[in-house]
Amino acid sequence: MMLKGRSLKSITLSNINHHALLLNNTCSKRFYAKHNDDDIKDYEKNMNEMINQVNEELMSERMDVNNKFLEQKLKAEEELKQKRLNTFNRYTTYSGGESDSKPEIGSTFKPERSKSYELKKKILNKSMNYKIWVLSGLVLIGIVGGNDIYNYFVHQEQFVEMGETIKDVQNKKIAKKQAKLEKKVSKMNQVLKLGDFGIISWQNNNFSVILSDFVKKQGITDVVEDLVDNKLFLINGKGDLYEYSGENKTVNRILKGLNLKELKLSNQKLYIKNKNNEIIVLPIKQEIFNDLTIKRSLLKPWSTYTSYHKKIKNAEGKVLQFKQFDVGESNFVGQTFDGAVYSATTLTRQQQINHNFNRGQFGLPEYPPTKLVEFAQIQKTDLKEYPSEDDADWEALNDNYDNKLLEEDLPYKNDLVTSTYFSKSNKVVNRNIIKLSTGKNHTYFIDSNSTILAYGDNSVGQIYLQKIGTMKGYPLVLSRLPNSVKCLDVFCVGDNTYFLVEDVISNTSNQLMMLSCGSGSMGELANGQFKINQADATKFGQKGLANIKDVIKIGGINDKRYGIFEMKNGEYKLCLWGNNNDGGLPGIMAGKRYNQVQEPNVLLNKDSKVLLTKNFGTLIY
């Protein structure tokens, strides 16, 4: 078809050019002879002859093209037929001699399939060889595996005996360690029976006695640890403050004659409560200690005292007297004898500028106090934030508070904690706080009706809110405890919260139990789990705590916890849980984490105190 197209194109162009020339000449003649009839007739005759000639030439050219196309088609069919014949002859052979001519296409022939048969035979042989190899491998595997299975069943009893032997060896090692541990605890108990023995320090799965002479002569009331400088600060029986250096093993008096009775530490400052229930604030700085002077009393000239007057005062400069107080990592909270609750920061202004200090631990949002009654109504639902007539104004106040710097150690009265609320008889009554406790950055309160309030950091669920990683900068009534229990006490330690609750349903038996929430990755919650964030209050794993009469104290440091429990039989029990990899918890095996309460056989009496420290282990005094 391509050849035909090209031939037609060349022929047509040449003919057209030729005939165009003839037409041009003819038209010229017609132009000059248009007035002559004879010329017209000659013109018409010539035109007809020319047209006939052109048609004859075109027909001749078309016939030539068609003939060439047919020849090419026949040639192509012959080539295709020959290719098919060659393909078919690859696997067939005709019988006859060499002189015999090949048959025509379509004639009868006798095929011989020897070539295809040989090919199939080769393929079959390869397949058989492969199957033999596979079968040999399977037989070998069966022999080896069968031998192992046979040996397993034949020697199964030996394996069991070996396993039991290994377990026996391990149990004997554990029993030996436990026996050694019990001997150490027994020796420690003998020291504890002596009374003014000093301070027991349990470290690295063993105990020692420190400050023996000091305690025998002066007694001891309270102890805190300075984590930075490896020191202890002590209050002796007379109410004086002393400093004990763990490196130098020396004891130095800091404050004398101030009748101190309770000691806490926050942001490298000591908060010391004296017999007048005033809070003395003493920074731990050697230059301050060196500047302290001793004066003689005018009323009692034979006695002397340290002249130091920095105490917690209100904005008017009045020294406040606190019924109870506690400190966190950067906050102070206390209740005065008139029932008011105060909150303060222990950070300097520069520390507040340098660090993101506000985790809600102060509970001091700028909020109009005229809406406290409405706030109390909303608190009961535990669904909304503080009410506000204008949300934009409320957000502006909140932002302003977040950027506000608090005055260091200046107590701000927190009316929201003691705000009025509606009683069951729909009367507006004042809230009476009876318990308070502060953790690292969160604070709890319990009122006289066992209602729980809290504010601060909820990064791991420590203020009992489901929204992990949040904070509340104002007191929030918590109503998520089951109705079957009544909260009696609360203890905040680090990022954990512990509740002492009473089973109201079986109140005739006065059944008490412990609940906990917060961080528990090292077993700090004692609920049988190792879980980081636990916003639900879960029950202690407490086998031996079924007969609790009261909880004296729950405390700890980092991921170690202890509790002192008063039992109904009059005994005082020390319980431990959390991380004991370093052997810092007395009477329990080292190198383990405990997510359930452990009960070592450590003797305690009514006045015994315990302190978990970083550098001195567990202190018992």
UniProtKB/TrEMBL annotation:
Coiled-coil residue windows: 33-86
Highest taxon listed in the record's lineage: Eukaryota
Gene Ontology BP terms: mitochondrial respiratory chain complex III assembly
InterPro entries noted in UniProt: MitoProcess-Associated, RCC1/BLIP-II
Gene3D superfamilies for this protein: Regulator of chromosome condensation 1/beta-lactamase-inhibitor protein II
GO cellular component, one term: mitochondrial inner membrane
Pfam families per record: RCC1_2
SUPFAM superfamilies, per database record: RCC1/BLIP-II
This protein's UniProt keywords: Coiled coil, Membrane, Transmembrane, Transmembrane helix
TM helices/strands, residue ranges: 130-153
Protein's name according to its UniProt entry: Protein FMP25, mitochondrial
